[in-house]
Each structure stands twice: as C-alpha cells, then as structure tokens.
Design a protein that fits this description.
Layout lengths: L1 E4 L2 E7 H7 L8 E3 L7 H5 L6 H13 L5 H11 L6 E5 L2 E5 L9 H15 L7 E6 L3 H10 L5 E8 L5 H8 L5 E6 L3 H12 L2 H4 L3 E4 L5 H7 L1 H11 L6 E6 L4 H12 L5 E6 L4 H8 L23 H7 L4 H7 E5 L2 H15 L5 H16 L5 E6 L12 H4 L8 H4 L7 E3 L3 H10 L2
Parallel strand pairs: 5-13, 6-7, 6-9, 7-8, 8-14, 10-11, 10-13, 11-12
Antiparallel strand pairs: 1-2, 1-3, 4-5
Helix pairs in contact: 3-4, 3-11, 4-5, 5-6, 5-10, 6-7, 10-12, 12-14, 16-17
Amino acid sequence: MRLYSTNNKDLRVSFQEAVFNSLPEDKGLYMPEVIPTLDPAFIRNIQQYSLQDIAFHIAHALIGEDIPSDDLKALVKDAINFDAPVKFLDKDLAVLELFHGPSYAFKDFGARFMSRVMAYFSKEGDSLLDVLVATSGDTGGAVALGFLGVEGTRVTILYPKGKVSKVQEEQLTTNGQNIRALEIDGTFDDCQALVKTAFNDPSLAGELRLTSANSINIARLIPQTFYYFWAYAQLKSQGIDEVVFTVPSGNFGNIGAGLLAYKLGLPVKHFVAGTNVNDTVPRFLKDGLYEPRPSIQTLANAMDVGDPSNWVRIQDLFAQNIEELRATISSYTYTDEETKIAMDELFAKYGYVACPHTAIAYLAAEQYKKDQAGTYASVFLSTAHPCKFPDAISPSIFEKVTLPAGAEALADRAKLTTELPVDYDTFKAYLLANK
C-alpha cells in the first residue's frame, strides 16, 4: 500500500511509514494512492460472511501484502472481537450500534486495529513509541484501552478540562501503566492543535518517536470502514439493498470512513451528517465557504469540533468537487434543546435509550426522510453507550440504562492526571521531562 499527502500527491510513503509518522511533513493527511474497487461478487454475497471475514477482506484489499495474509487475519481476529449489530426500530428505520467494544464507543474499531498494527510493525530494539492523542470524549478511552499494556508503546492523552463526561474521564485517567492523561485547560481544538504542533516540531523528532492515535492516522480510518460493510451485510440478509447512513459528525473521521467504503464499492444510496452547533461542514455544503470557528461546548461533546481535520480527506476523495459532495452528503445541525427532545422521543416511541450523539443522528435521519422520501432503509449510527452521559439524559430514562460490564468499577479507581494550560512550550517541556 502506498499513500500520498493531501497537500502533495507526488509524496509517496509506505503503509508502515504512514502509520508511524501519522502526519506528512507538509501538514497534509495521508490517503491511499489507489482505492481498489472490491469484487462485485463479494458485495452481492456479503451476507454470507462474518464481520471478521469482511474486515479481513477490506483490510487486505487496501493494505495488500504490507502485512501477509495469515498475519493480517490473526490481527483482525484479535482486534475486532465484538459485534456491531443493526437493530430495527420500525420497518425502515434502524440503528447501527457501535458501542459493544471495551470502551463502549465506535472508536474501539480504529484504536484496537491501530494498536495491533503498530505492535506488528515494531521491532525488538526499537525505541519507545510515544502515541499522542487529543480527545473530545470517546477517542481517549478507546485508545487507552486499545494500547493498555501493549509493549513498546506509551500513550499520552490530551483532553479538555470539564468538557468530557464522568465515565469518559474515568476511562481516560484511571489506567496507569503505559497510559498518561493530560487535562488541558481549553477546548478539544486546543488539544488537537497542541498534538499537531508537536508532530511538526523538528526539535522533538530527535528526542521522541512520536505517532498519533487520532483519526488523522490512516490506521484508524481503515477499520472504521468495516462496520459499514457489516451493516450492509446484515441488511442484505433481510432482503434490503438500498441504504442511507446517517452519521453523527464532529471531526468527520467516522463519515469519512463511510465515504471510503463507498469509494471501495459499497452501494450506499446517500450519506447524512448530523452535527451539533459546531456547523463548519454544513455551512460549507450550503455556501461553499470553509470557515472554521472556535468550538462550542454541547451535550454531544465528542462532536465539539470547530475545525474538523478529516474534512480534507473527504474533499480529496471527491477531488474537491463540491457538487459531487452535495450529491453524496446532506447535513443538518441541531441544538442541545433539540437533542434533548430527540432523546426523549426515541425512548417514548421506541423504548430506545440513546446518547446525545446518537440522538443527533436520529434527528438528521428523520429530517432526510422528510426531504427525500423513498423505500430505502434509514440507518443511523449509535456511536457511544448511553451510560457515558448521565448528565445529558433525562433521569427517568437514564435509570433504565443497563451498565456494561466493568463500568461501575471505574468510579472506584484513582484519577491519574496532570493539568496543563493551553501553551505549547509547557506541553513540550512536559514531554521532554517525562520521556
């Protein structure tokens, strides 16, 4: 597999190099040199395959022999060891549940796959691999649990102080071992900027072997395509061929993976991006002007992103053609008040308890159905378990939530974190003093 930078298509690197470097020196993002079209027979018969079979097929199509087939099969089997079921709420409305992994969030797909890929490529005698990650909520927990105890790695997680839920913070800060948490007195965008600056700081390159676990890393994007194909397989098994996926979107890595799946040959009718009031992409699709703004804190904190990194990947997939983008993606924006109403409505109509991100996806799915009536299956993505959001969900509904195994024990573990201001020199000093 060869990859180029979105800022320079003449730049070519191997998959291994892209995984470890995360960001090209020109500050673009890595993209596959070739996006293969999967065998139509595989798509036609996809309902015959397991999730692990599908995951291997897609990973092998993209990665090729960079990881030999037998090794890749074992890696996929180890990483993707939990389900992502499609559950119908009525005859044409379904939810794809992506929270059945160890951190109760969709990011387990990317974090577990990436950690195994990095461990596979690491050689005995290599220097310690320092993984930096900024999180607005769920990424940090998924990365922490994905890398916990992985030899030769150390993870430093930056999260915005007071802007993640209690369970999210517990998953970030109670691990110890090779996981460190930094509580940054700012926003997610501030955390992300600190990480990006570190990667582009040549003076750190000689001191630390840095890589990223954010969705800027191509090894996070690839496994997120798996569950789109798996969802389609489940629909096919019920005789359904046409699907519209609605994705709660913040940094646009999740829907970016869906669009990569579409380019690989997944027959998706349309994509819908639901956002909170951090609406940079909806405004762009409307008026053609990309104008990032400072992020605003909302109930759907994992989507509080004012300048979504992965949007450049999506534009690259569509060769900067805004009309093709508009034909493929619709987008809707919702307030906290609308999100609360949606969570209540989902429970009242279907007995379904949803997190705020899932509720936004539901709202956008319903709006698109009104705008574009049809016979397709409308599948919205549930990206996090509701147990992570006790303060956002109505108490009378939250009491119906069944906690996943291990969630209760988190509260009894000591918080291990270091507070830092939004200041790159202070962050750099911390990294160098604790290398």
